[in-house]
Specification:
Distance between the termini: 54 Å
Number of helices: 13
Helix content: 55-70%
Oligomer: single chain
Strand order of the largest sheet: 2-1-3
Number of strands: 3
Amino acid sequence: MPKISNALNEINTLDSLAHRQTPATALHPLAKLLVTLAYVATLMSFGKYDLVSLVVMSLYIPWGFYFSQLSFTAALRRLRFILPLVCMVGLANPFFDEQVFTLGSITLKAGYISLLTLMLKGALAVLASYLLIATTTIEQICYALRFLHVPKLMVTQILLTYRYLSLLLEQADTISQAYALRAPQETGIRYRVWGSLAGQLLLRSIDRANALYASMLLRGFNGEFFYRGPITAWQQRDWHYLIILLLCFILLRLLPMSQLFIHITGGHLQ
């Protein structure tokens, strides 16, 4: 199926993006991980009516794409299915939030403001995570997690889940192509063979997973993740990147920008 092939291509594209030579990929993975976690935590700490503060916080996203030399439109295309689902979280707010925000002669239900706030929080968090994944390989992310003393079982589970997802998609793509060759006149897979194909996918995936696990054991795998890829030592640029962005996030969190906006415009919430 084209959708399975497209999913595999997207995963391979993200891996290739993370292996490019850019200022962002040259940074230490721990610095990028800490900045992303701090950014997401700062976003989540804002109140449900702090829309102005979130708009200012969103400036990190275009700067991050420019610094990472990534295409923003390509990111939106890859996240076109995730972002709408994230934005649907607060759809019920306008119905349950009965407060009213007044700005001059304009009266607006506060539920719409909280809806926009939740949508912006989710979209910015997803885009920030995309920036991390597109500039850092999964092995480097796991290396940074172990550097933070995250339990090895959890780190190994994250790595293997990511890798076995590609394996599962490869097997599904092989099965779908074989079916398409045997039934060239059909536009999709007939529902009568869904059960048998799902069973074949399960069996093939288990066999491939067992073979991969056996090869891991032959290479000395004992449940611990050890990163052996190229990685640069922590440098002064990593300190600058981490400290400057953390200070910006703290400053933007402490400044009451939403309250200042309401005070300047003469609006009030009731």
